[in-house]
Structures are given as C-alpha cells and as structure tokens.
Specification:
Length: 470
C-alpha cells in the first residue's frame, strides 16, 4: 500500500543502513501525471500526449514517460532511504516494458553494498507493475548522509492541469457527426477573422461564404498562409456592404448562420436588426457566452454581455428564454438559471434584486419556460455550493448554475472577460433571437474561439432543420 503522508521527513544515516535493508514506494500512473511530466520536462513525444498517434504506435495506447518511473526511485532515495542529505553519484537503469495509464508500480530499493571509506552506498532498484511484471531495474550509487536529519515535511501546493486543447476538442465535439452548414462571414479581412471560419471548415463545422472585398481577403490569406481554396467569395466594396450582403444571404436561405468578421459589432448588428431586410423575429435579440471554466464542473452560459446594455424586465424575459432554448439544444433539458445581483436578498435599493424576484415569479406562472430559476443570487452563491450553504440558501440552482443572467452588459462583460483572462476559460459566443444564429466574437478573439462558436451554431442549425421537418 502507499505510504501515508508523514508530518516529518527523516533520513537514515550511513551507519543505520545495513546490507539487505529495503524501502518501497507504490504509485499509480494517472492521466494528469503524464501531462504534468510533459509540461515539466518539455517532453511532448506524441507517444505520451497524442491519443490518435498512440493508437497507431506499437503500444496501441498512450503510455507514460519511462523517466516518470525512474523519478519514483529518486523519490525513495531522496526522501526516505537514505533520505535528506543524500547526494546522487550515479544511476543505471533498464526499461523492460511500458507504463500505461492505471498501472500501479511498486518501487523496491535494496542496499547491496556499503563503502566505509567514502560513505557511498550502492542500491539495487526494481519497479514491478500490478501484475508482478518487471518494468524497470538497475542500480544507484549515492553519498549517504552521516548526520541525522529530521525536518517538517513541506506541503506542496496543489497542481491543476488545464488541457486547453482537450477542452477545445470537447467543445467542438458537441456537433460530431453533423454535416457542415453554410455560414455567411461578413468582412473577414484580418488574419484571425479569416482563420476562424477556415479552421471551422477544416473541422467539418461550416461551409464559409466569405463576404467582403475579394482582393483584400485574398491578400490576407496569402500574407498569413491561410488556405481559402474552394471557398465561395462574394465580392463587395466595403464593410457596410459586407454586413448587408451577408445578412441578405441568411434572409434568403443561402446561409443558415451569420459570422462577424473584422467589422465593428454595431455595423453588423445594424444590418441584422434593420426593419427592412434584417433578420428580426418576435423575440428580442440577445447574446450568450458559453464558458468552459477549468475550475467549474460543467459549462456556463452567461447572458447578456454583448447586445443589451441596460435591459428592462421585459427584455430580460427574452434574454432568459433565449438562453434556456440554447441550453436545450446543448442537451440540458431543465437548465438551472441564476439571476445575478450584488446580494442574495431582495432590496428596493438595488433594482436588479427586484427584477430577479419578479422573473422567478414569472417562471412560476409559465411566462418563462423550460428552466429552473432562482434569484437574486450573488455570483459566489450561484457557482459555489459552499458559499450558498454558508449563506443559508436552499435552492437547486445555487452553487450549481448552468446559466448566469447578469444585470446589465457592463457587469456581464466583466464576468465573461475575467473568466477568460484570469481563469483560463475557453469561450464561445452566439447571438440568439434572430432568424439565424450569429457568431459574434470580439476582434481580439482567437480563431479557436471563432471555431468553437461555429460548433454551437452548427448544432442550432441542425436542430432547426429537425424542427421544420417534424
């Protein structure tokens, strides 16, 4: 069994160790061990970190670094046998078989020789797996300590591995198996706004229709080595025409989604909400951020942080309903909706608390459908079960929210950007309530964010097709 964590770390001196004495350590290889070792060492051999490549290798699966096993030998020598004060002289090892995820290694270090003239000890080193098969063997020579050392054990900080690429692939997987949808991209005239739809196309999410000055689009593609071969380009003179033409393609059914390029949001949304030729519906248009936060157990929908500046109670009804409908598309049949404010109590001095209470009652009366609402809730009470319990809040929503409804655009934008830049959240964004879903990303957003947003609108477009057929 594994050694229990001790309060102190204590060595065994040269004189205390006898030939034949042993020490053992047991460890099980976990996926995060592989990732952490790769980050620490810089060894990103695809055998260890690329599941697709590993399946084609001789081992047929991801394997751990052989040197991870050897570090366990070093752990025994440096912390216990002999322990503090030990100086490595040499290490010779043979690696007999791979270490795969879930393998449990038993490390045995045995004193073979002692040399009194220089206080060197030679140890036999052996690692076997849970099946008793030899994984590593060899020997180590150390300069053993001659004085007793006992120190308080240093508690190391917890380490969290955030695999952004894995989370990104998981987000794209929400539309796995669906055919690409035609998407009109308005004015993709810089590297990121052009690379985003191209990357999404390569992932099988969309068939981009690039709307903008053709010469400029091709120049950007050539300068940044972006392959746009085979993509349809609709040549227009400037950004304003790009917005109107892209919206027209959506209105006429040529495209099933709209994507913002390098033009300003107001310019694109002006064409979207135009009473003549726009994409309006009876529902108020609103924006939702989908945030994959490493420290939260499931994705968060944040609304509205991009369209409605100071929404009224009536507007918030549509904002919430739009977000609930998106949650249904994403596979959440009854999403938990937290209506945020600065406090969790209703007070006339803070308008958002009054509106939160009204919205919850409207949901009780069927004016908002398909979700579980609670509010007002402060941010901590919405996402932390501990905070909610401390405040005495009894609610199925508190501490486990799926949707965060913010009081206004300013607060929502701050919440979303703080999660992205301080908590390494992977963000995607979509505008709802129009005749087609709209990928409305910031000009500072990466191609990765744009492609992730395309996965959402692809899924929405296919759900819409299903609804029209059935």
């Amino acid at each position: 069994m594994e050694h229990a964590v001790q309060q102190f770390i204590e060595n065994r001196t040269f004189d205390e160790i006898q030939v034949g004495d042993i020490a053992q350590l047991v460890r099980t290889l976990k996926p995060e061990d592989i990732h952490l070792f790769a980050v620490m060492s810089g060894d990103v051999n695809p055998t260890h970190v690329d599941p697709e490549f590993a399946r084609s290798s001789q081992f047929r699966e991801v394997v751990g670094h052989s040197m991870w096993g050897s570090t366990l030998i070093s752990t025994v020598l440096g912390t216990e046998f002999p322990g503090p004060g030990t100086v490595y002289v040499s290490q010779g090892l043979n690696f007999w078989r791979p270490i795969t995820i879930g393998d449990t290694l038993t490390i045995t270090v045995t004193c073979r020789e002692k040399h009194d003239h220089n206080h060197h000890i030679i140890f036999d080193c052996l690692a076997v797996n849970q099946d008793g098969l030899k994984v590593i063997d060899g020997n180590a020579e150390v300069l053993a300590p001659t004085e007793k050392i006992k120190r308080a054990r240093v508690n190391l900080p917890a380490v969290t591995i955030s695999d952004r690429e894995l989370r990104y692939r998981h987000l794209l997987s929400i539309s796995t198996g669906l055919a690409p949808i035609p998407i009109a991209v308005a004015h993709p005239c810089d590297s990121e706004s052009l690379r985003g739809p191209v990357q999404a196309a390569q992932a099988g999410l969309v068939d981009p229709i690039l709307v903008g000055p053709e010469a400029k689009i091709r120049a950007v593609a050539e300068e940044h080595n972006i392959d746009i071969k085979g993509f349809r380009i609709v040549d227009v003179a400037h950004s304003h025409a790009s917005a109107e033409t892209a919206v027209g393609l959506c209105r006429d059914g040529v495209a099933e989604a709209l994507m913002k390029g390098s033009l300003h949001t107001d310019e694109l949304m002006g064409a979207v909400v135009s009473r003549e030729g726009g994409l309006r519906t009876a529902r108020r248009i609103s924006h939702v951020f989908l945030a994959d936060v490493p420290t939260y157990p499931h994705p968060l929908l944040i609304t509205d942080a991009a369209i409605n500046i100071e929404p009224t109670l009536e507007v918030k009804v549509d904002i919430i309903q739009n977000a609930i409908d998106l949650a249904h598309v994403l596979g959440l049949p009854e999403p938990k909706v937290a209506i945020l404010s600065a406090v969790e109590t209703v007070t006339p001095k803070i308008r958002s608390t009054i509106e939160a209470a009204a919205l919850c009652k409207m949901a009780d009366r069927g004016q908002i459908k398909g979700g579980l609402l609670d509010g007002p809730l402060a941010f901590d009470n919405a996402v932390s079960l501990v905070a909610a319990k401390t405040k005495g809040i009894r609610s199925v929503v508190a501490g486990n929210a799926d949707i965060l409804v913010v009081p206004d655009l300013e607060s929502g934008n701050m919440v979303a950007k703080q999660l992205e830049y301080l908590a390494s959240a992977l963000m995607a964004g979509v505008v709802l309530g129009a005749r087609v879903p709209i990928v409305l990303t910031s000009r500072a957003d990466t191609a990765e964010t744009r492609a992730a947003s395309c996965a959402i609108v692809q899924l929405m477009a296919h759900k819409k097709r299903e609804a029209m057929l059935g």
